[in-house]
Each structure stands twice: as structure tokens, then as C-alpha cells.
Amino acid sequence: MTMRQGSDRLAALRGASVSLAAAILAGCQSQAALYDTRSIDTAAASDVNIASLTEVVQQNPSDPAAYNVRGTAFGKAGKLKEAKADFDQAIKLNPGYYQAYANRALVYRRMGEDAAALADYNQAIQVNPNYDVAYAGRGNIYRGRGQLDLALADFNRAIQLDSTDPKAFHNRALIHQARGDHQLAIQDFTQAISFAPQAAEPFNGRGLSYLAMGDTKAALDDFNQAVRRDPQSYEGWTNQALAWEKLGEREKAFASFSHAFALNSGYAPARDGMQRMSRGGLKTSAL
To answer: Model pTM?
Structure first.
């Protein structure tokens, strides 16, 4: 790669505004759901791409954007130490690089270092008070700590800044759900679905709120949509089974519990559900 090619590549990558927070998908009702439709190229984590980005870094050793972009690829590849090192260098070269602070914060979160992540989100917000990604990320930390008022304020701010961000709506819905405000949760899950219709998590979340409100058929419809989008979701299959159970469809419930158990034999709600259905007289094999 020539120096001119390296510069052109870096300019293109910088223009794409790639961020690690927009690249990593996650999904579990009990955790921070960081799914996002604005993901980077699916080949970003490949060895070939990382090697190419390394050439860009070598051609532009003083440009923080080069390190930030390569750090994003390392993060997507699960190489967290390498990602952190690149974000460290990007911040060293440009202490006002708020995107790199938010990217490093997400790496810290994946390392289980929430205090360091919180400090980085705070720094990103101090540099750019209108950076919605940092509010959404910080809100997840507050939610994980049980500081729901602070989390809610951050998600409200993120939504105010970017009203099309499904993560913020989804995570705010989880707070409403935890507080028993299921109608508000359903509204936010519905908004998340409208912006990320292929994501399973908001269907699962909305289904749980419908189930809590006694609308079992609506809940079942949502759980069906969730497992259609993510057939590996043992939580989704278990939730579907719970809806079938409430509707009195014990054989269908057992089948869904069994599917969840096959995906994760350590998931107690699936195992317990199978046992309940077995005690009801179904002809099943031994668990």
C-alpha cells in the first residue's frame, strides 16, 4: 500500500464515522442490549482487514483516526487488549477525541471494568455534551448498578439527541419494565422495533411486558417473532413456552421448554418448565 493509498483509505474510514459502540451486537433481557443496526462492515474483524488497517496506521502514525478505526476492528474481533491499546494511542494523540473515549469505555465494559468505563463515558460527554452514544453507554452502567433514576435520565438524553437509536429506547424500556410500568415499556419496545425490526431483543422484552399485563396471545406473538429472528435464543424459547403454558397448551409448552433446554442445559427456567410439564402427565423421555 502506498502512502497515498493509505491516506485515501484513512479518509474513507474517517468519513464513515465507525464506532465500536455501533459495531457490537448483544442481546439478553437481563443484560445491556447493545444491538444496533448501524454496524460496521461484517468483514471488519477479519485478519486481512486488520492487516490492511495496520498498514494505514503505519502510513499515518500520528493520526488518531487510524488507531480508532483499527481499534474498532480489534474490538469486533474480540481482541480487547489490542483494541484498548489503539484507543489509548488515539486519545494520547488527541485528548479531545470523544468517540475514542466511548469506544474504549465499551472495551472496559466488556472487560468487566465498569468504573473505568464510566470515567471514559464521562470524559466523552465532557468533551461533547451532545454525543448520544456516550449517554446510552453510561446509562447502561447506571442501570447495571441499579441507579435507575440516573440511567433513565441518560436514556432520555440519548433519545432527545438521536430519536432513532433503538438501543436507547430498548434500554429505557427495560427500566420501565423493572419498575412495573409495562405500558410505558411496551411503547419503548415498540419504538425500538420500528428502528431495528430484525432484532430479537425488543420482541422478547415487549412480550414479557404483555405477559405481565395478562395479554398472553400478544406475548406469544412477540416471542414467536423473537425466536424467528434468533433461533439460538434459549430465553426466547423459554418465554414462548411460558406463554403456551398460560394458554393451557402443555405439549407445545414442553416442546418449547425442551428446545430451550437443548440450547442451554444449565438454564433453570427451561429445566423447571420441562419438569412441570412432565408432572402434568405428558409422555416424555427422562430429563
So the answer is: 0.78
